[in-house]
Amino acid sequence: MNITFHREDFLKPLSYVAGVAERRQTLPILSYILLQHRDGKTVLTGTDLEVEVSTVTTGTAKSGGELTLPARKLLDICRALPEGSEIDIRQEGEKVVVKTGKSRFTLLTMPVSDFPALQTPPWEQSLTLKQGELKALLEQTHFCMAQQDVRYYLNGVLLEVSDGRLRAVATDGHRMAVSELALPGAKGDKQIIIPRKAVHEIARLLTATDDSLTLQIGQNHIGVQTGELTFTSKLIDGRYPDYHKVIPGTQTVHARLEAAEFQHALTRVAILSSEKHRGVRLNTDKLIRITAHNPEQEEAQEEIPTLEYAGPTVEIGFNVAYLIDAVAAIGAGQVQFSLNDPNSSCTVRPAGQEYPLYVIMPMRL
Questions:
Q1: Residue 112 burial (CB < 10 Å; 0-12/13-18/19+)?
Q2: CB of 35 within 8 A of CB of 66?
Q3: Is 170 helix (H, G, I), strand (E, B) or coil?
Q4: pLDDT (tens digit, 9 = 90+) per residue, 217-274?
Q5: How many other β-carbons are positioned within 10 Å of the β-carbon of residue 42?
């Protein structure tokens, strides 16, 4: 096999598939990518046995075929080459020679027959939506996923398809994020749990644009297809808890705040919070006071005015990182901060909107 690429045409699709390849693995082939050129089309594929990414790129083949290449080494080489470089890849026995200008790199290859492929059953449902919509849905929720929790079903994002909407839910047991978008093509009632790595990869691969994608859902797999890219992942086999029970019903205290002002105040107070517990205390009123202490007897205090306040005064403690994450995910504009009493969870959402919604459990200080 002998094929030539323009560096700029090759680097982006290479970064897509190399991001999936495992650096530390039990199977050496999983640190490699598969390069194929057949019928005038060049395809790059990377996998870790759970997630697979394939993308089409532009190359000029002097002779076609397929070969495997060490993903990270090839990506590092291409990144280090000057802009506008022509990259020539040629297989020579059990080695691959990568040449450009006066630079020459000899890399080890492995048998193509060793490269695994995900076997996916027929898709049960296909949905068409914008890349920016799915990317935003995941970015508004993914940070609430658990990390290596024994409750394995929490180590991912719940994607719920029902009549006319697509909803994403994530929780680690201390906080929860819920977001949804209208999707006229969504029919029936289906729940799947996307693994943590797959969630991050989908968010990385998608662009915040109106370009369309096809979301495919199967019994044990999820697929995302854009113009030149195909993503496939296994799903977490488990039953997600009933998240509706966690969402508070009627709340008696409501404060409307400027999101940026609230986030900055929390960030400053967090500097002197306990490194272990990250706790801050909020005294809610028309002027919200945020305070933090640490074992060194240091103290931080901020006061921010509310744009609107209703309800009695409440003193309540929270993990400041959870509040900062929620407000940062909402972004610019105003946030609605609501609660009942010091022992009940609070909700944070964009003012005047139902979603995204963040539910945060209080902590004793």
A1: middle
A2: yes
A3: strand
A4: 999 999 999 988 999 999 999 999 999 999 999 999 999 999 999 999 999 999 999 9
A5: 21
